[in-house]
Every structure is written in C-alpha cells, then in structure tokens.
C-alpha cells in the first residue's frame, strides 16, 4: 500500500515519528512536509533528532494568514496526490497542514486517516478547533488517543471508522525521554538546577494577538521569584518587538530560541512547573509528572485538569501568580494517556484495509 503522510509543524513531527517507523515495515510511505514550520529550530532539528526520514516533498509554504496558507497548501498537496496516486493519506493533529491534507485527499476521493482524532476544546474561536472538527468529519479512519475523544465523535454522529488506539505522543515521549537524559546538556548550558526553575511557552493567537494579555503573562513570570526559561516562538518574538516589550523583559526570564525535542523534554522533565498555552506541552507535562499552569481558558486535554495536574489560568496575572504559589499536586498521575503500542495498532488497522 502507498501512503502519503502530511506534516508541517513541530507536534506533527513528534507524532509522525513512531507511526512512520511502523508504517515503513510493511508499506510505502511518501512523506510530505508542507513547510508550515520551516526554520531549523522549528523543523530541521526535529527530523534529525527523531530520526524521521527526509521528506519526499517539501512544499515550502511558510508563514501566512490562515486562508492564504491553507490555500497554498491545498494547491500544492493536490499536485502531490495526483502525481503519487496513494491508497491513503494520513494527517496529524489540528493545524492548517492537517486540514489542507484532509481536504486535498477528500476532493480527489483518496481515503483519509486522522491521527489524534476526537479532541475538542469547544472553543470555535481557536483555528485549531475548526481544523480538528472539519478533519474528523472528512476522515475515513479516526485514530483516537482516549475514550473521551471517542465520546466526542459519537456525540457529533461520527461512528464509522473510529478506533481507540492510544496516544502516539506517549510513545514518542517514552522513546525519547531516556535519550534526552543522556544527550541533552540544556540544564548545564543554562546553569539550572533540577526543579529550581520554570518553563514557559506562549504562541496561541488568543495570547499573542493581545498586548494586554502578553503584558499580564510576562509580569506574572517576572514576579515568580524563579528563573523562567522562555523558548520564544518566531511569531511571539515578532509580537513582543511590535508591542515594545522585547527591550524590557524581566531579568529572571531566560530567553532562548525554540529548542529541539530532546532539549525540550529534558527541560520540562526537570522543571518545577510548566506554564504554556500549547496543547501538546500540557499533556507532556502530565506524562512527566510536572504541574502545568495553562495560559488559556479551556483545554482539549480535560483529563489533565480532572486529575488535578493542570489548572486553567488564562492570562490573569493574579491567578497565574496564585497558581505559582499554591498549585502543588502531590498525588501520582493516573495515566489517562496510554501507549500500549499505539503506532503498531494504527498500522495494523491500516493494513486490514479498514476504510472504504
């Protein structure tokens, strides 16, 4: 079977790595990188560290507004699919690359598999929510990480092709955590002690598009009383400059470029707390047993909140500060997210031809 896998952003590289390893044992995979994340810190280093094969196609779409970016991807992906004539297209997660890959395939009557299907934040103002809902309603195979995701699909009338397979991000994290502990020197390079620092990331438009929200978050971090490692997304770097904030960042913030996966795992693993608006980092924090303060009013990973290891603080300075002082879960995580060979299970289902 010939399978086209479409990726374009950091979280998708992580999810693709274990699936690609399994897929290539039995099938021909054509890997397409849309170029949604395009510089080395956001793309190339991930392919190197995760040992992902070099993409067969690099579309080079780059950064743009949602409509222009998705449209450019759609046109380029249609050409790839017409040239390759695959039996199946696999898309991952909830980015514009996900939606464009699914839509290009559906228009050409090529079956679609969605890895990480069924997630919902129930916030339609988030582009990611629109992408994931539309992709799920186009997909023929829906690979869900949790029973909650399955239940979301059933509530929307999506029942055919739904499979509870476990979480490929758990597989990727477990595979790479020990490697990161051996190879990464990020704590030594930054002069950090275990559990003596915080990690923060901010990149969602709901935060970066608001100067007030960014000021509130940065002030809360500045008043935390700890070193805060802040790997800055390129878009965040630009808005900080546009808002006139770059030159007056608090002294306790350790500003870095985006980090590779191994350094980021090691950094999160040793942190006292993690503050983020990233969906993937919320779950990784939970898996690593590190308390997470989510800089959003909602989450697609409700299980992390229900288990008491994640709290929603939005961009409320006082709430963030309060959580930094008092949010200290002591019980063991319940391990809502399991692997149990999720990539192998995905490939087995694909191999059975469980799609129209």
Quick structural gist:
With 356 residues, the protein is an alpha/beta fold. It is 47% helix and 15% strand. The protein contains 16 helices and 13 strands.
Total separate domains: 2
The helix/strand order is EHEHEHEHEHEHEHHEHHEHEHEHEHEHH
**DSSP helix fraction:** 40-55%
Number of strands: 13
Please tell me the CATH architecture of the largest domain by its name. 3-Layer(aba) Sandwich
Radius of gyration: 20 Å
Mean pLDDT level: 93
Q: Output the number of helix runs.
A: 16
The low-confidence runs, each spanning 5 or more residues with pLDDT under 50, are none
Beta-strand content: 5-15%
CATH T-level fold name of the largest domain = Rossmann fold
What is the top-level CATH class of the largest domain? Alpha Beta
Distance between the termini: 14 Å
Strand sequence of the main sheet, in spatial order?
3-2-1-4-5-6-7
Which structural class is indicated by helix and strand composition? alpha/beta
Globular, elongated, flat, extended or rod-shaped: what is the shape?
Answer: globular
The CATH superfamily of the largest domain is identified as: Glycogen Phosphorylase B
Largest β sheet strand count, sense and barrel closure: 7 strands, parallel
Question: Can you characterise this structure?
Answer:
The structure is a single chain. This protein is an alpha/beta fold and 356 residues long. The protein has two domains: 180 residues, Rossmann fold, CATH 3.40.50.2000; 152 residues, 3-Layer(aba) Sandwich (Rossmann fold). The protein is 47% helix and 15% strand. The chain is built from 16 helices and 13 strands. The protein has a seven-stranded parallel beta sheet, with helices on both faces. Helix 4 links the parallel strand 4 and strand 5. The longest helix has 19 residues. The two termini are 14 Å apart.
């Amino acid at each position: 079977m010939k399978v086209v896998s479409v990726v374009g952003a950091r979280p998708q590289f992580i999810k693709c790595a274990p699936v690609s390893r399994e897929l290539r044992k039995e099938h021909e995979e054509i890997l397409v990188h849309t170029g949604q994340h395009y510089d080395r810190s956001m793309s190339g280093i991930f392919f190197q560290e995760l040992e992902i094969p070099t993409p067969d196609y690099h579309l080079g779409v780059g950064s743009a507004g949602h409509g222009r970016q998705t449209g450019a991807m759609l046109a380029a992906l249609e050409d790839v699919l017409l040239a390759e004539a695959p039996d199946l297209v696999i898309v991952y997660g909830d980015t514009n690359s996900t939606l464009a890959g699914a839509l290009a395939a559906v228009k050409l009557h090529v079956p679609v598999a969605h890895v990480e299907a069924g997630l919902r934040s129930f916030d339609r103002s988030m582009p990611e929510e629109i992408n994931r809902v539309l992709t799920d309603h186009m997909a023929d195979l829906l690979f869900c990480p949790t029973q909650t995701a399955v239940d979301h699909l059933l509530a929307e009338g999506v029942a055919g092709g739904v499979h509870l397979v476990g979480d490929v991000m758990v597989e990727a994290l477990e595979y790479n955590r020990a490697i990161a502990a051996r190879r990464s020197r990020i704590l030594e390079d930054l002069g950090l002690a275990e559990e003596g620092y915080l990690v923060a990331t901010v990149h969602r438009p709901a935060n970066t598009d608001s100067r007030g929200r960014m000021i509130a978050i940065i002030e809360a971090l500045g008043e935390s009383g700890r070193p805060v490692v802040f790997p800055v997304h390129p878009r965040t770097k630009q808005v900080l400059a546009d808002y006139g904030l770059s030159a007056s960042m608090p002294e306790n913030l350790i500003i870095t470029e985006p980090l590779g996966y191994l350094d980021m795992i090691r950094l999160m693993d040793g942190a006292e707390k993690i503050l983020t608006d990233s969906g993937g980092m919320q779950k990784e924090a939970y898996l690593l047993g590190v308390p997470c303060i989510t800089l959003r009013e909602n989450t697609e990973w409700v299980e992390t909140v229900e288990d008491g290891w994640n709290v929603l603080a939005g961009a409320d300075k006082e709430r963030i500060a309060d959580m930094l002082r008092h949010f200290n879960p002591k019980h063991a995580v319940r391990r809502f997210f399991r692997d149990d060979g999720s990539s192998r299970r995905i490939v087995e289902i694909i191999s059975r031809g469980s799609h129209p």
